[in-house]
Amino acid sequence: MTTTKYRRILLKLGGEALAGEGGFGINPSHADEVAAKVRTVRELGVEVALVIGGGNLWRGKAGLQHGMERATADHIGMIGTVMNALALQDALERAGVVTRSMTAIEMRAVAEPYIRRRAIRHLEKGRVVIFAGGTGNPFFTTDTAGALRAMEIDADVMVKATKVNGVYDDDPKLNPNARKFDYLTYMDALNMQVKVLDSTAVSLCKDNNMPILVLNLWQNDDLLRAMVGEPIGTIIGR
User: Fold this and answer.
1) In this structure, is residue 2 part of a structural domain?
2) Which domain holds residue 207?
3) 68 within a domain of the structure (yes/no)
């Protein structure tokens, strides 16, 4: 078996990873693509847990603009993440990867409630675990949920998978001269107010010394290459 840099990872995906036309809905083909990438990492022997957002199904800002309570808007978003988790679980299991979805808000008919020790046991048995429902509390993003779960399961790294191959000093899609960083400290990331991860998540990782790896999920085999120690993306750490 190939030697890997990481024993256990928390992979944080945005809901757009599964999005259909116009960035909304669930495209089963995209779920299959994500499942294939997770499977290749799992086949290396890396234990994989995932947190997925719900932005492809619901944007809380739209509700807030119409006077909706923030807590209500956030709860709708949490339910959206469960829908995404079930779609991804289905894709993974069709790809031959045994998967368990666990929710912060109990929905026992469709997924297990989140119990930390049970989640770790699933990972130890080689199962992929998808954490849905965010933290279970309003006013927290799924980035923060990813950071929290990464700490709780004792992951080696939180991987923030995006459509950009790292952190830049400007938007590389608008500025061809934007400079990519190979490494940033937590304070650098906080002071720069990096767009790929919210400040609460970065602060939580800083306080608990959880490294963050920002990479492009869709670029070549970057996720796989990062697992074996190739210098991919941007590392945020001490």
Assistant:
1) no
2) 8-237
3) yes
Residue 214's CB is within 10 A of a number of other CB atoms, namely 25
* Domain annotation covers residue 3: no
Q: How far is the C-alpha of 19 from the C-alpha of 30, rounded, in Å?
A: 7
Amino acid in position 126: G
CATH number for the domain spanning 223: value is: 3.40.1160.10
- The answer to whether residue 1 sits within a structural domain is no
Least confident of 27-31, 52-56, 194-198: 194-198
The answer to whether the beta carbons of residues 11 and 161 sit under 8 Å apart is yes
Is the pLDDT reported for residue 130 higher than 90? yes
Both tokens of 142, joined, read 């799924």
Domains in the chain, number: 1
How much is the pLDDT for 191? Answer: 95
Distances (CA, A) of 136 to 126, 140, 228: 25, 9, 33
DSSP one-letter string for 1-46: ----S-SEEEEEE-GGGG--GGG-S--HHHHHHHHHHHHHHHHTT-
Q: What is the pLDDT of residues 203-221, one digit of tens each?
A: 999 999 999 999 999 988 9
DSSP letter (8 states) at residue 153 = T
Q: Please, which pLDDT band fits residue 2 given cuts at 50, 70 and 90? A: confident
Q: Predicted confidence band at 1 (pLDDT cuts at 50, 70, 90)?
A: low
What three-state secondary structure class fits 213?
strand
